[in-house]
C-alpha cells in the first residue's frame, strides 16, 4: 500500500460535539462530548452497539444531521459547506441502485446532477468501474448482479466525482462472511490506490481491526468515545493477518472498550 500518503493533516475535526434529538418522550442524547481528529488518508472505523451514535456521527460529517453543541469541521469548512463543495462520497448500508438504470447509469447520476460534460461522465464511469473490478458490467442492470457486486457499484458511484473523503455506513453488513472478506480485501486495495480518507461504520470487530489505521470505540447512548486505537498493523494486510498475536491483541482491546462503555452511568 501507499506509504507516501501525508497522514496527520486534519480532514475531520470534532470538539465537544453534542447532538440532542427532541422527541415526544423527551430529549434523546445521541452524541455527547465527542472529540476526534481524522488525518488525511486515514482509514477510521467506528464500532459500538446499536444506538451508540456511530452512524449519527457519520451523518453529522455529511451534514445529514446537525449537532446541537460543540464544533465540527470537514476540510476546514462546516459540514454544510463541505457538502456544497462535494467534499465526500457516501455509501449507505443498502446499495440503493435504481433498478431501471444500468450500472453505468446509476454511477452517472450524481455526475449528471452536477453538470459534468457527457464525455467526462463516460470517462469517469469507466475509471471507477475498473477501480471496483466491475469493468464490462456497465450495461448490466442491478438485478443482474450479486449483492456484493451491487455494493461495489454503489462504492463506484460514491467515487465517481472523486471526493477526497469516503463515508461508509455498514456497507457490507448484509453480506455473507465469504463475500464480506473478499470485499474487505478489495476495499483495502481501493484505499491504497486512491489515498482517500475513509470513515467506516461497522458492528464487526474483525472487520474494524482488519481495515483500519484507527478504530473509534463508542459507548451506548449517550454516544461517547470510550477508546481510540491507532493500529500498529502494517498497511499491507493479507486476510491471514487476523491469526497473528498483534491482530488478536487489538481485537481484545476493542472488546474491552465496548465493555467499558457499558459501565457509564
UniProtKB/TrEMBL annotation:
A Pfam family reported for this protein in Swiss-Prot or TrEMBL: ABC_tran
The UniProt record lists the keyword ATP-binding: yes
Keyword match Transmembrane: no
Name the record gives this protein: Sulfonate ABC transporter ATP-binding protein
SUPFAM superfamilies, alphabetized: P-loop containing nucleoside triphosphate hydrolases
GO molecular function: ATP binding; ATP hydrolysis activity
Every ABC transporter domain range: 14-241
CDD domains linked: ABC_NrtD_SsuB_transporters (cd03293)
UniProt family annotation: Belongs to the ABC transporter superfamily.
Keywords: ATP-binding, Nucleotide-binding, Transport
Amino acid at each position: 500500500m501507499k506509504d507516501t500518503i501525508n497522514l496527520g493533516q486534519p480532514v475531520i475535526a470534532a470538539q465537544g460535539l453534542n447532538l440532542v434529538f427532541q422527541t415526544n418522550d423527551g430529549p434523546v442524547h445521541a452524541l455527547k462530548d465527542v472529540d476526534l481528529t481524522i488525518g488525511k488518508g486515514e482509514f477510521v472505523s467506528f464500532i459500538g452497539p446499536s444506538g451508540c451514535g456511530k452512524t449519527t456521527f457519520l451523518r453529522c460529517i455529511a451534514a445529514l444531521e446537525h449537532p446541537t453543541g460543540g464544533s465540527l469541521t470537514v476540510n476546514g469548512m462546516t459540514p454544510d459547506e463541505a457538502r456544497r463543495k462535494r467534499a465526500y462520497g457516501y455509501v449507505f448500508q443498502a446499495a440503493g441502485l435504481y433498478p431501471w438504470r444500468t450500472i453505468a447509469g446509476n454511477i452517472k447520476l450524481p455526475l449528471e446532477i452536477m453538470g459534468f460534460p457527457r464525455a467526462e461522465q463516460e470517462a469517469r464511469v469507466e475509471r471507477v468501474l475498473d477501480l471496483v473490478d466491475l469493468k464490462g458490467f456497465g450495461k448490466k442492470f442491478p438485478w443482474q448482479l450479486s449483492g456484493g457486486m451491487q455494493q461495489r457499484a454503489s462504492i463506484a458511484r460514491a467515487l465517481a466525482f472523486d471526493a477526497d473523503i469516503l463515508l461508509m455506513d455498514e456497507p457490507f453488513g448484509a453480506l455473507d462472511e465469504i463475500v464480506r472478506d473478499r470485499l474487505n480485501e478489495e476495499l483495502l486495495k481501493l484505499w491504497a490506490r486512491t489515498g482517500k480518507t475513509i470513515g467506516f461504520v461497522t458492528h464487526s470487530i474483525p472487520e474494524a481491526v482488519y481495515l483500519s489505521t484507527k478504530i473509534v470505540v463508542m459507548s451506548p447512548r449517550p454516544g461517547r468515545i470510550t477508546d481510540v486505537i491507532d493500529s500498529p498493523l502494517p498497511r499491507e494486510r493479507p486476510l491471514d493477518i487476523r491469526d497473528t498475536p498483534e491482530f488478536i491483541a487489538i481485537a481484545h482491546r476493542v472488546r474491552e472498550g465496548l465493555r467499558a462503555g457499558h459501565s457509564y452511568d
